[in-house]
Amino acid sequence: MANSIVQNEIEAFKEMYEIMPIDMVKSMIQTIESNGVNSLIVCSSICILINIGVIITAIKNTILRNKGLLITASVVCLLFAGNGIAQMLSIVNIIVLLCLKRTNPEDFPVKKELPKLEEIAITKKEVFIGIALVLIYFSQFIWGNYLIESNILRWAIIVVFYLSVLVLSIIFWNKSIKRDLKTFKDNFGTYIKFILPRFGLMYIAYFVVTIFTIIITRNIGSVNQQNLESLPSWYVIPLAIIYAPIVEETIFRGLIHKIIKNETIFIIVSAICFGLLHTISSEVTLMNVIFKALPYSVLGGFLAYIYSKTENISTNMFCHAGINFVASLLTLL
Asked: 29 partner at 20 to 30 Å CA-CA among 171, 248, 255, 292?
């Protein structure tokens, strides 16, 4: 029975050769074959149960008051769905949720205002620290291609680089990091209620843009992503969940926002810079650099929007860590 389910999934993907890039279909088939039966059944069962929970919520007529959270739950199910039934339920739920409109006063959840944080002016010392941080961070794209072959010295250089950038990021936020962390902790529920509904919408936009990118470039994933997947998990996961949220939020949200005060321009610039960071040093052609940067730009724009509304760097680090955690899980499954 279990083998039959797996085989049916593989056959279903094979029928998509004509409408999807071959590399993408082959990758999906390989993932199903390598993950085995148990992984497929467990993921499918969990996703189906969550989707049924969404339907029960709809029957109880509380769907509109929890619209954002339910969209997020459905998107997560679509991410981890192990078969067509779970995927179809997720897609149907997402479409229905997006089409429903709140009309009655009781459908609108009571919103608690986000804490207002006073902006702390940047000092000359922080300007120098910020410049040093940016220069050291982006230097990796130059010396990274010329690392010596000795494994010990190679890893020593890499460790020193990561620690230097991490320490500079923390020093840059020295005046406000305690305040931001405390505010985030004291108002965790308020922040979560603001973030989660937007997470669902962000992932919908991310999937649409990713599919568009794959169709245009006829390739699945960027070189940057493929390089990360080829590295050991013990190395990539701490970088993704701890290092990247602290460093990248400091540079691409914190620093840029201190320079650009206009909210719209800040979000656009942050999104473009964040997108190009992940492709400009790894892709060969200009077209791939631009188009494969688009999904990352969606994530960067979302994080910039969150920062512009909360003005709390801890909130951004939490969001960034969450996004990378989901990506890590998808890589490991």
From this structure: 292
Query: For residues 12 and 261, what is the distance between their CA atoms, to the nearest angstrom?
Result: 50
100, pLDDT greater than 50: yes
- The residue with tokens 């039959």 is 4
The percent of residues above 70 in pLDDT, for the chain, comes to 71
- Mean pLDDT, the chain, as a whole number? 78
Look up residue 187 and give its amino acid: N
10 Å CB burial of residue 205 (0-12, 13-18, 19+) is: middle
Residue the block writes with tokens 């981890």: 80
For 300-316, the pLDDT digits (tens) are 999 999 999 999 999 99
> The whole model's pTM is what?
0.73
**Greater pLDDT, 222 or 249:** 249
3-state secondary structure of 247: helix
Q: Kindly write down the DSSP assignment for every residue of 5-70, as one continuous string.
A: HHHHHHHHHHTTTTTS-HHHHHHHHHHHHHHHHHHHHHHHHHHHHHHHHHHHHHHTT-TTTTHHHH
**In angstroms, what CA-CA distances link 119 with 8, 114, 139, 173, 182?**
57, 15, 30, 12, 16
Please give the C-alpha separations between residue 117 and each of 109, 182, 200, 257, 293, in angstroms, as whole numbers: 24, 12, 26, 14, 32
CA distances from 140 to 66, 92, 136, 158, 283 (A): 44, 44, 7, 9, 16
Give the mean pLDDT of 160-169.
92
